[in-house]
């Protein structure tokens, strides 16, 4: 009997750290539309989104994901500090390294074909919250070609209030003087969801990181956001970045990331095919709100409208 296929393990990044990965694909006899690289948020890990992968599989997409450094089942970046990275660039480097690994090890095994002329499956980016910031910088790096992007509750910018400007100015010396001190407020836990069962599970998960950010991590994140705000490629019609279809989804009551800044980023995008979908009343963890089925259905429909099924049996060893 055919069933969902998955494979998990560890791969090494350029800094010789072991990072956990998980991939999940439909049954072998299902022709795929594409493969989705999914990036989790600031404090979570890949396996917390298995229900998202299930939904993608049910609509003919494979899913690949990994735990970012110092999160989930992955090694720490340095000093054994959970939730910390010395450089934001490490996240982008690791993501590109994972895609390279997936292209070499995971995807060929999951999509093996006797048809040598079968077209390559499109690679699609999908992420939530902090994962979208890493993802957009990964897309802009140009190391791998992506066919589309889905950003959920994007943490790609902040509203620069006078207080935040002062905090940012103070964070620079602190990031160097006490880089591992967890002094930067992170996620507003109560603003994550309206589902008390999810919130209880979130707080009980030992693989989640729920404490403050380190001084260095906070500063690096602000710098990554500022770099994105200054990057003209997102508003240049001829750029490779703007050739991709873009979907941004966010809850109207998101108190963790800024809805206004997400809309501002969307308005900057020069992509011809772009959509901003606001879900009324939903909080930040849009894939775990009581209306999550509606959210996932919208994403699946958007993807299916843009990616057709590759020729039957092009991605299967056999149907025996």
TrEMBL record:
Organism in which the protein naturally occurs: Lagenidium giganteum
* A Pfam family annotated for this UniProt entry: Hydrolase_4
Gene3D superfamilies on file: alpha/beta hydrolase
According to the UniProt entry, where is the signal peptide? Answer: none
InterPro entries linked to this entry: AB_hydrolase_fold, Hydrolase_4, MAG_DAG_Lipase
**Which residues are in the Serine aminopeptidase S33 domain?**
33-291
Output the SUPFAM superfamilies linked to this UniProt entry. alpha/beta-Hydrolases (SSF53474)
Q: What is this protein called?
A: Serine aminopeptidase S33 domain-containing protein
